[in-house]
Design a protein that fits this description.
Layout lengths: L32 H6 L13 E7 L6 H20 L8 E7 L4 H14 L4 E2 L9 H12 L3 E3 L15 E6 L1 H16 L3 E7 L2 H12 L3 E8 L7 H9 L4 E5 L4 H12 L5 E3 L8 H4 L11 E4 L12 H10 L8 H19 L5 H9 L23 E2 L5 E4 L20
Helix pairs in contact: 2-10, 2-11, 3-4, 5-6, 11-12
């Protein structure tokens, strides 16, 4: 881990991470996978000769818009690519995008209206997990019989007992936390950290994993999405003297945090988790000089490899997004991969029944690669609908992507 990345990153993300970031298929699920097993893709099968319709509730505005727009950029790029290569099951793909305003009530209303009004083959939310929004949409998808691929961020959404038709593209928070701990140990010899973050499920799991990996959290400061002055928060962390400050925030607040860091004279290393990587630096602050030079960002599944090599689909994503990509590709890649996942389910399942689509994705089980995940191994199963990968990489935060490769003055760890 969420910016329509032509900017970059993940979320959880992401988040977060965000992420680095989606939605999926359809049909009638009545509250259990058994009921789902006998249903046909009523909300989504439609005419096999008609367009392949995907509903996209998206955080285009509101507190999580930076993340939502990134996912949406990847989704749109993937649809253009897929349509240029035969569509999905031979059908032209069309998107219906509605703004959630990063508000759960609005998101649910828009999603219900979309799914009730037309025959959608999939729902692919370009949203994060703030305020329970991701889980709220997964509930709508389950009730309406739509098999959803989402960007991840809320661990509950990966539980098929609760949401039998939802699949998350995001790596689990425990893997993210472990990767961040690795980065802190190897690059900064850190044993203690202070953290600034939003109070949401992914961050909580991420930091628990950091602690389990031997990093002591000496200051854990939670802020809201509307806070504007972080001076007192930074001073509290400063007094605890952590080896590294982890800023796990994205959106316009990042700029104010950097201003406050400079104002109080904070001099220690600053590291960004997945949420930080969800912003293009020039969208965070007016000048890159405000971004600490030593600030790296952690990336999740689907990101560009630190050695600069790209899979063919990763290169296609880079080409589709344009050459001015900065930072990380995780969140657009989540949108890109979600479309590839939907395409895989529809073209490799025995039928378009929801149960068959679910089983097809569960059958990946690390044995096949999808989308930019060609360097990762999806780990879906009948017990886990979340991508659980510890394969994380890092690049310098303000790094410019040039000709499809990253150049880094500093070799960053790819494993611990």
């Amino acid at each position: 881990m969420k910016s329509a990345r032509l900017s970059n990153a993940r979320r959880r993300h992401p988040s977060r991470g965000s992420l680095v970031v989606a939605a999926s298929l359809l049909v009638v699920v009545a509250a259990s996978l058994a009921a789902c097993g006998s249903s046909t893709a009523s909300s989504g099968s439609g005419s096999p000769k008609g367009p392949f319709l995907i509903a996209v509730p998206a955080d285009e505005t509101g507190t999580d818009s930076a993340y939502g727009l990134q996912l949406l950029a990847g989704i749109k790029a993937a649809v253009r690519y897929v349509n240029a290569h035969g569509g999905i099951a031979g059908r032209h793909v069309e998107l219906t995008v509605q703004d959630t305003k990063t508000d759960p009530a609005t998101a649910v209303s828009e999603a219900e209206n979309m799914l009730a009004g037309q025959h959608y083959q999939a729902m692919f939310p370009a949203t994060g997990a703030i305020n329970g929004l991701e889980a709220a949409l997964a509930k709508v998808a389950t009730a309406q019989g739509v098999l959803e691929v989402n960007a991840g961020g809320d661990p509950s959404v990966t539980d098929p007992k609760i949401f039998p038709t939802a699949f998350s593209m995001s790596s689990g928070p425990s893997a993210t936390g472990t990767a961040l701990a690795c980065l802190l140990k190897q690059n900064f010899s850190a044993t203690t950290v202070g953290i600034i973050h939003h109070d949401e499920p992914y961050s909580n799991g991420e930091f628990a994993a950091m602690a389990s990996s031997g990093i002591k959290i000496v200051a854990n400061e939670t802020v809201t999405e509307t806070d504007q002055d972080f001076t007192a928060t930074i001073q509290t962390i400063q007094s605890s003297r952590p080896d590294v400050l982890v800023v796990d925030i994205f959106g316009p607040q990042l700029g104010q945090i950097f201003h406050n860091l400079r104002a109080v004279g904070y001099s220690g290393p600053v590291v960004g988790g997945l949420e930080v990587s969800a912003q293009k630096p020039t969208q965070v602050v007016s000048t890159l000089s405000l971004v600490p030079k030593a600030m790296p960002a952690v990336a999740g599944a689907g990101d560009v490899r630190v050695n600069g090599s790209l899979s063919p689909l990763q290169q296609s994503l880079v080409s589709a997004l344009g050459t001015s990509v900065t930072g990380l590709l995780g969140n657009p890649a989540a949108g890109w991969d979600g479309i590839q996942l939907i395409k895989y389910a529809y073209e490799h399942g025995p039928s378009m029944k929801t149960a068959d689509l679910v089983k097809t994705l569960e059958g990946l089980n690390g044995s096949k690669a999808i989308g930019t995940l060609s360097v990762e191994k999806p780990s879906f199963s009948s017990a886990n609908h979340g991508l659980q990968s510890g394969d994380f990489y890092a690049v310098d935060y303000a790094q410019q992507l040039v000709s499809g490769t990253y150049t880094s003055a500093k070799k960053l760890p790819t494993s611990c």
